[in-house]
Write a structure and sequence with these properties.
Blueprint (H helix, E strand, L loop, with lengths): L1 E4 L1 H4 L9 H10 L2 E5 L1 H15 L4 H15 L3 E3 L6 H10 L4 H16 L4 E4 L3 H9 L3 E3 L3
Parallel strand pairs: 1-2, 1-4, 2-3, 4-5
Helix pairs in contact: 3-4, 5-6
């Protein structure tokens, strides 16, 4: 299975949140994990926002290290002109924010190039609905 993680799903690996266990189990069963390059900045910003909320510096460093190690194992979709046409179609059809449109366009690009069982993991309702409307199997499915 190819697992695409948007940032809302990705951060559940590093912070104990609702559905963290489900994300980790799905991640462990995946053959490949995919995300967009925008997830790097979004995830790092999330980690450091938590530090501002009182997370100890040692914990912050450990999470950053773990994330950077995982990052090297991902298939990372570059944000470039290849995505523009797809982004145009997506924002016309769905009320998406900018980075959400990039994540969905990235997922659709990879799904087309890797014809395996493909799962789009996302915890943003608007983005998950758009992904399902575009024919992607979504996780969680509620």
């Amino acid at each position: 299975m190819i697992l695409y993680l948007d940032t809302s799903a990705l951060v559940k690996r590093y912070f104990l949140e609702e559905f963290s266990g489900d994300v980790i189990a799905t991640w462990q069963s995946a053959d490949q994990v995919v995300t967009s390059f925008v997830a790097y900045g979004e995830t790092m910003a999330c980690i450091y926002r938590k530090r501002c909320g009182g997370m100890p510096p040692d914990t912050t460093r450990a999470i950053v290290s773990r994330f950077k190690n995982d990052w090297e194992s991902f298939i990372r979709v570059k944000v470039n002109a290849d995505l523009c046409g797809q982004i145009d179609k997506l924002v016309e059809a769905h009320p998406l924010r900018g980075f959400d449109a990039i994540h969905l366009a990235s997922a659709l690009l990879i799904q087309k190039r890797l014809p395996h069982h493909f799962l789009f993991a996302c915890f943003d309702n608007r983005l998950r609905h758009a992904a399902a409307s575009e024919g992607l199997e979504t996780f969680p499915n509620f």
